[in-house]
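Hey, does this match?
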Amino acid sequence: MAQAAEHGPQYTAVRYFLGRYKPLYGSIMVATLFSSLLESISVAAFFPLFSSLLDEQPGSGAGILGIMDRMVEILPISSVVVASSVLLLSAFLLKTVVTFLRDALTAYAGARVLYDVKKQIMDRYAGASYEHMVNSRQGTLVYNVLSAPNDVSALLLSGSRMVASIFRVFAITAVLISILPLAALALAGLGLVYYLLIHILSRKVTYYLGRGKARTAAEQNVTANEFLNGIRQIIAFNTAKRWIDRFDGHSKQFSGYYVKEQIWLAVPRPTMEIFGLVLMVGIILVLRASDSGVFAERLATIGVFAVALVQLMPSLTSIGSLRMAIMSALPNMDLAHQTITGPVTMRRAGSRTLKKFEHQISFENVSFGY
């Protein structure tokens, strides 16, 4: 934690935990690629329906839109509107099933990581020397076992979801490029500016807020643990107020970090909504002003673009929110990594085997106390 505080966020812990679950997260990536492909198909599947409703000629689309037109023609249904609706519903149904399976696999991965990390830390402490355990604050040990692993699982879960959102953005952007290339490039430019802004905020703001939350949460845990374990002495010596004030101070600090973090996590959504609205209105105005006839002819294309933009906005927003959440959880992941891999004096195994006791066991110059 000291090194991270001096040099900023490090990603050694992320690489360590990802390396332990390569097959699991590799499977998630495969499912994510497949669901992203279906995402682009489901967006493009709107084009035949819009074209048929606007009485445009079949086969008027190019690229992936043209493929959707040909798929409608292949279906053994005489009505173009009905065939287009069947194609659209089928694409969305398949996308929903694959997305659900991907999310279920991601949830399983998060639960597996949480269980394994807690077990690793418990096994580490179970083999630690008695001196190490005595010299460590019990509240800190409890926090390391029960709280820090939660953020390890949460970070990897957020990372998987962020990658899924990135793939989804690329898939839908590919459709947009085939529809309105210049508008898609403008959207890509806005997306790049948005990501750079979130990247700076996550490194310079939310990471340090996460460090503050981790530190004050650990201190709260230590104070509460010592207060409850020593409650009889605290009551006997009438020192409860000192302990309550101490806990209250840490709690106020934690609440301050929490409020600031939630405020910054709320930034991506309105920012991206403004970007998307400005882009959509600008495209409509440019097309309308250039040639009203072209505008009327391209209503189906504009409709698909609007649908794609609506599908795209939540993914772009989630990329920003998840990126900031990842940086907030990174300090606790570093703590769990340090606990598992850091230097801990372990108990040495004895070299003498006692096969049996013939008489008795006696202790000399040994005292016990509580």
Notes: The first helix runs from residue 2 to 7. The chain is about 80% helix and 0% strand. The two ends are 34 Å apart (CA to CA).
